[in-house]
Write a structure and sequence with these properties.
Largest interface: A-B, 25 and 28 residues
Oligomer: heterodimer
Helix content of chain B: 25-40%
Structural class of chain B: alpha/beta
Radius of gyration of chain A: 33 Å
Distance between the termini of chain A: 29 Å
Largest sheet of chain A: 6 strands, mixed, barrel
Helix content of chain A: 40-55%
Shape of chain B: globular
C-alpha cells in the first residue's frame, strides 16, 4: 500500500507539471549552492593539506614568535638546536637592515644571512638563482630582482654592505609573492650574504625571524618539541611558539572550515526559501484537491493515508530538487574552480571534492526540507472532515 | 431477529453558520434492513444529503445514535470509520467525483488500495467490474474522455468493487439526460434484485419510483413513508 501511495504522489507531482518544476527548482538552487560551496571548500582543504605537507614537510617543526608572527624576532642558538637528538637539520633565518651601496644606487635594504644548511630549503625559501650561481664562499652576495635594479648591479659587479665589499655572484628568480618559508617576505627586495659575515657585521645576541627544524626519520616529535622548548627557556626566550605540521594544517583547516560553514549557512538560507516554496505549493495543492481528499476518504482512505500521500509528495519534490541540485552544484563548483584558477593563475591545480558524506547528506537534507515543509499542509489535508471536503467546490 | 444493517436513533444534526445554528436533521429514526431499496425525497435543504452522509458514516450526528449491524458506531474513531466505509459502503455522487488524473481502471482500484488488496488481484477485480458495467473498452480512459453516463458507471464500478453491504447514491441521475439516467436507475434496480441494499436521495419522482420504500423529508424530519 505504501508503494501505491508513493505512485499516486508521483502522479500528482507530474500532473502539476510546470508548478512542480518551479517548486523543485527552488530546492535545486538551495542544494546546488550548498553543494558547490562545500565541495569547493573540501577541495581547498585537501589541496592546502598537501601543499603544507609539501612545503613544510610532516617531519618539520617551526619555531616562531607567538601567533606565528614573523615580524617579531626571537632569540635562539641554532647550533644548540642542531645538537638535540632526533634533529636531522635545522636552520635559523636571520634578517637585518643594512646600508648598501651599488654601482647605480644605494639605500637601506633587508639582508638575509645564508647558511650552507639552507641548501636543503632552497626551493621552499625561493632562493633559486635565475642568473649567475649560488653562494659558495665569503665575500659573495645574491641579489633579489628588484634589489639588483635599485643598486644598478649585475652579476660580477661589486657592492658594499655596511662598508664591507661583496661580489654579486647571482640574481634570484623573480617571485610572484613572498613564500611561506620566508615569512611572506618578498625576496625580490633583499640581498643574501653568508650568515657568518652577517654575524660579523651585526655582532651581539642573535635574534632570528624563525627557525625550521627537520627531524630524523625515527625521531619522536614530542620529545624534540620538549627539548626545543627547554632550550628556549634556557636562553630566556618566553615569546616563542613551536608549531609542527599538524598544528599548522589544523590551524589553516579550522579557518577554512569556519569560512565554509559561514558560506554554507548562507546557502542554507536559499534551501530554506526552497522549503517555503514547497510549503506554498503543498498548501495550494490541498486547497485544489480538497474535493479529491473527500473522495479518497469516502472510498475508505484513513487520515494517515492522506497524510502520507501529501508527505510523500513534498518529500519527493525535495528529494528530486536535492538530486538535481547535487549534480548542478558539483558542476558549478568545477566551473568556478576552473575560472578562478585561470583568472588568478593559481599554482598547482585543485579540484572540488564530492565526498560520500556530502552526497548522502545533501540528498537526506533536501528530502527532509521537503518533508518538513509538507507537514503542515499534509496535516491539514488529513484532518479535513470528509463531508466538508466533498461539499467543497 | 437479526439487527438492521443501519439504524438511526433520534439523530439530529445541527450546523453552525457563524452565530446561527441551522438544524439539518431533527430527531430522525430510521432503520435500513438488508435488501432494502430506499429513496429519500424532498426539496433542497430538507436534509436528504445530511441523512445520507450520516448513514454512510461520512459525518457524525450532533445528537442520537448510529448503529451499524447492531453496534453503536457513533463514537468510533476516524480510522475505524474509514475502514468500515471502505469495506462495507459504496458511494455514488451526483458529480461522479472521479479523480481526474487517474484512468477509469485506477479510479475503480482506489478503494482496494486502501483495503490493502495486492496489485494483481486489485487490477483483476477492477477490470471485471468495469466489464460488467459495459466499460471494458474504456479502462485506460480518463474521466474527461468519458461521457456523463460512462463516468457515472465508472463511479458505480468504484462503489461496487469492494462488494459493499450498502450502496449510497446522492442524486445519481441529477447530472444525466433522461435516457442515461434511466440506464443507471435500471442498474440500481438490478443490483437490488441481486440482494444489494441501496439508499438513494433524489428529487426526481421517476428515480424514486424505482425504490421499494420512499421517505419524504421536510425541514430535517421524515414526514411520510410510502411502501
Amino acid at each position: 500500500m505504501i508503494r501505491d501511495l508513493f505512485r499516486l504522489s508521483f502522479r500528482n507531482i507530474r500532473h502539476r507539471g510546470l508548478r512542480s518544476w518551479l517548486t523543485v527548482i527552488g530546492i535545486l538552487i538551495g542544494t546546488a549552492a550548498v553543494v558547490a560551496l562545500i565541495s569547493v571548500g573540501q577541495g581547498l582543504q585537501r589541496a592546502i593539506a598537501t601543499q603544507v605537507e609539501r612545503i613544510v614537510g610532516y617531519n618539520t617543526i617551526l619555531v616562531t614568535s607567538r601567533g606565528l608572527n614573523l615580524g617579531q624576532r626571537i632569540r635562539l642558538d641554532i647550533e644548540a638546536i642542531r645538537a638535540i637528538p632526533g634533529v636531522r637539520s635545522a636552520i635559523a633565518v636571520r634578517m637585518e637592515t643594512a646600508y648598501v651601496e651599488g654601482p647605480g644606487g644605494k639605500g637601506f635594504l633587508g639582508v638575509l644571512g645564508y647558511d650552507p644548511a639552507m641548501q636543503e630549503f632552497v626551493a621552499e625559501m625561493n632562493l633559486t638563482v635565475a642568473a649567475g650561481r649560488e653562494l659558495s664562499g665569503k665575500g659573495e652576495a645574491l641579489l633579489g630582482g628588484r634589489t639588483a635594479r635599485a643598486l644598478g648591479a649585475q652579476v660580477g659587479e661589486r657592492i658594499s654592505v655596511e662598508g664591507r665589499t661583496f661580489e654579486v655572484v647571482g640574481i634570484l628568480q623573480a617571485q610572484r609573492a613572498g613564500g611561506f618559508a620566508t615569512g611572506g617576505l618578498n625576496l625580490n627586495d633583499v640581498l643574501v650574504i653568508p650568515l657568518s659575515e652577517l654575524r660579523e657585521l651585526f655582532p651581539g645576541p642573535e635574534l632570528v625571524q624563525y627557525a625550521v627544524i627537520r627531524l630524523a626519520d625515527n625521531a619522536d616529535i614530542a620529545s624534540v618539541r620538549d627539548a626545543v622548548r627547554s632550550h628556549l627557556n634556557k636562553v630566556g626566550e618566553r615569546n616563542a611558539q613551536i608549531t609542527d605540521f599538524e598544528d599548522l594544517t589544523r590551524n589553516i583547516q579550522s579557518v577554512i572550515r569556519g569560512v565554509q560553514a559561514f558560506l554554507a549557512g548562507i546557502a542554507g538560507i536559499a534551501l530554506l526559501v526552497g522549503g517555503v516554496g514547497v510549503m506554498n505549493t503543498m498548501y495550494t495543492a490541498v486547497l485544489e484537491r480538497t474535493r479529491e481528499i473527500g473522495i479518497l476518504k469516502a472510498v475508505g482512505a484513513k487520515d494517515s493515508h492522506v497524510l502520507l500521500l501529501f508527505l510523500f509528495e513534498s518529500g519527493l519534490m525535495g528529494l528530486g530538487g536535492g538530486a538535481l541540485g547535487l549534480v548542478v552544484g558539483f558542476g558549478v563548483a568545477w566551473i568556478a574552480v576552473a575560472i578562478v584558477s585561470r583568472v588568478f593563475q593559481a599554482q598547482g591545480s585543485f579540484s572540488p571534492v564530492l565526498s560520500f558524506g556530502l552526497v548522502v547528506g545533501s540528498l537526506f537534507f533536501s528530502f527532509l526540507v521537503g518533508a518538513v515543509a509538507g507537514i503542515f499542509p499534509a496535516v491539514r489535508a488529513a484532518r479535513l472532515p470528509p463531508v466538508d471536503a466533498l461539499r467543497y467546490e | 431477529m437479526t439487527p438492521a444493517l443501519v439504524e438511526l436513533e433520534n439523530v439530529s444534526k445541527i450546523y453552525r453558520l457563524g452565530e446561527v445554528d441551522v438544524p439539518a436533521l431533527q430527531g430522525v429514526d430510521l432503520s435500513v434492513q438488508a435488501g432494502d431499496f430506499l429513496a429519500l425525497m424532498g426539496p433542497s435543504g430538507s436534509g436528504k444529503s445530511t441523512l445520507l452522509h450520516i448513514l454512510g458514516l461520512l459525518d457524525r450526528p450532533t445528537a442520537g445514535r448510529v448503529l451499524w449491524e447492531g453496534e453503536d458506531v457513533t463514537r468510533l474513531n476516524g480510522a475505524k470509520l474509514a475502514e468500515l466505509r471502505g469495506r462495507r459502503i459504496g458511494f455514488v455522487f451526483q458529480m461522479f467525483n472521479l479523480v481526474h488524473n487517474l484512468t477509469a481502471l485506477e479510479n475503480v482500484e482506489l478503494p482496494l488500495i486502501f483495503l490493502g488488496v495486492p496489485a494483481r488481484e486489485r487490477r483483476k477485480r477492477a477490470e471485471e467490474m468495469l466489464v460488467r458495467l459495459g466499460l471494458g473498452d474504456r479502462l485506460r480512459h480518463r474521466p474527461s474522455q468519458l461521457s456523463g453516463g460512462q463516468q457515472q458507471r465508472v463511479a458505480l464500478a468504484r462503489a461496487l468493487v469492494t462488494d459493499p453491504a450498502l450502496l449510497i447514491a446522492d442524486e445519481p441521475t441529477g447530472n444525466l439526460d433522461t435516457a442515461t439516467g434511466r440506464e443507471i436507475l435500471n442498474l440500481f434496480r438490478e443490483l437490488n434484485a441481486q440482494g444489494r441494499t441501496v439508499v438513494l436521495a433524489t428529487h426526481d419522482p421517476e428515480a424514486a419510483g424505482v425504490a421499494k420504500i420512499r421517505l419524504r423529508l421536510r425541514d430535517g424530519q421524515i414526514v411520510e413513508v410510502e411502501k
